[in-house]
Amino acid sequence: MDKKDKKTGDPIDRAKQGTDVSLDMIRDMLRAAVQEREGEDTYINEVYPAYVIYKKGDHCCKVVYSILDGTVQLGHEAVEVRRAEAEARAQRKEGEDSVEMFICLGQANCQ
User: CA torsion, points 45, 50, 51, 52, in degrees to nearest 10?
Assistant: First the structure.
């Protein structure tokens, strides 16, 4: 499923020509690079300025990347990560006007 059309063209060609490359095009370039390395059964979850998180089977992995002249370079080693769940609770005693908030943010296991 390639996102090429007459208006935008191939994102790699656009990047090589020095024209504007949209964030969607960058995501497409990363998807192609990850799928080339890991296989077609991968899905991009999140894209960050320095790394991408993708899902393969039941596992999520994080790998650094760079893009230079339309070429995506993935880091040598992907690290398995877990999505951390966030928990929020409100505590209020009967008759009190104030509410005490308790927020606990889990931390992903990035090694």
Answer: 30
Q: Which residues contact 31 (CB under 8 A, 6 or more apart)?
A: 42, 44
Q: What is the residue extent of each domain of the chain?
A: 11-81
pLDDT tens string 51-101: 999 999 999 999 999 998 889 999 999 999 987 766 656 666 666 655 555
Pairing of strands 51-56, 86-91: unpaired
Exposure class string for 38-72: b at 16+ Cβ within 10 A, else e: beeebeeeebeeebbbbebeeebbbbebebeebeb
Q: Could you tell me if 67 and 75 are in contact, meaning their C-beta atoms sit under 8 angstroms apart?
A: no
The model's confidence at residue 11, banded by pLDDT at 50, 70 and 90, is low
The helix (run of H) or strand (run of E) holding residue 27 is helix 23-38
What is the distance between the alpha carbons of residues 87 and 77, in angstroms, rounded to a whole number? 31
AA identity, residue 53: I
